[in-house]
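Hey,
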Amino acid sequence: MECSKYVQQKHKDSTEWKTVSSIADKIHEWCNEKSIRLKLDEANRPKRNSKDVQDVLLPKLDQLGFSSEAKGLFNDYKTRQLRPDYYREVEATGIIVEVERGQTTINNADLRDLWKCHICKHADYLFIFVPVALKHKETDSPNNAYARVNNRLESFFDPEGSNYTNVRGLVVFGY
């Protein structure tokens, strides 16, 4: 399991980010246990979907206080039916967790996840799980969605740029 963290400069020393980062570290450590790695590898096989990966992650996310498909986070929008895969409050904000597999960059799911966190009044942090080696068929060459997502989303956290959104921090997990 790989992990990349991005945070806006003005939030990097905040207790909020330290809490969010600590939660990410616990998930990352757990996902690197051999038994969990094997389950994630199996869930990432061709013809599997993100729900299979979610099923592997769910016990740890439950233990850390995340709720599945939290309702009501987008009630102020015309798109009120939006739901994150998982959500947890942290201080006066929260973390949205999204688990992607086959559609990660092909259908811009990573950008949709960032947008979802950007418009959510209850979350300023996004955890996104994406494959390191994605294959739709056994004969396909693996596509490194993890690298592509990092390349696409890191620009939103470049302190030299003017691309900041209100997503204060992002953690990309590569399974």
